[in-house]
Amino acid sequence: MAEAIDTQPSEGIATFQQAHELRADWADAASLAWDGSRYYLMIVEENTEYYAASTSKDRSAAGAVAMLEDWITETGHVPRTLRLDGAKEFAVSEMRDFCRKHNITLQLVSAYNHSLQCRVEGAIRVTKSHTRVALKQSGCPLRFWGRATEDLINKRNTLWAHKEANGTLTTAFERMQPVGVSDN
Question: Looking at the chain, which runs of residues are DSSP E strands?
Fold first, then answer.
């Protein structure tokens, strides 16, 4: 039985009583990366707008599952829902098994319909444009897009303020305490 969570925030600290809701989709890279990567999986946490991305040489379901497993391990947070488009790389048994294993509600929306995945599609657009500008201004070759994307996301998550958290997107994300979930 799950312990009740104290819903009263500590003085000066915002506590979010919401479950993590992830949106994810594959994005094409600016060019072939130095390590052979052509794509990246963009992950957006719905409630805090916390971004994460991981590069890949292909858009396979196994690669997406491995990246989502890494996200859970790295952040220590298991999402309640995962929204993906119904494209062939997501609408497979590996993804369903992953969600079942972690008790995640899988929401598949129409394949390649960008309006139903607007949060993650917007994040992809922003990261692509900012990454291209950073590479152009620095004079670095396009093959470093993976590192530039990672740098952009780290800066965005740690420097941008979150209006409800008295802190950054990272602190807002770390303070989230899903309702009905024990810390044990």
Answer: 21-28, 39-45, 50-56, 81-85, 105-109, 161-162, 167-168
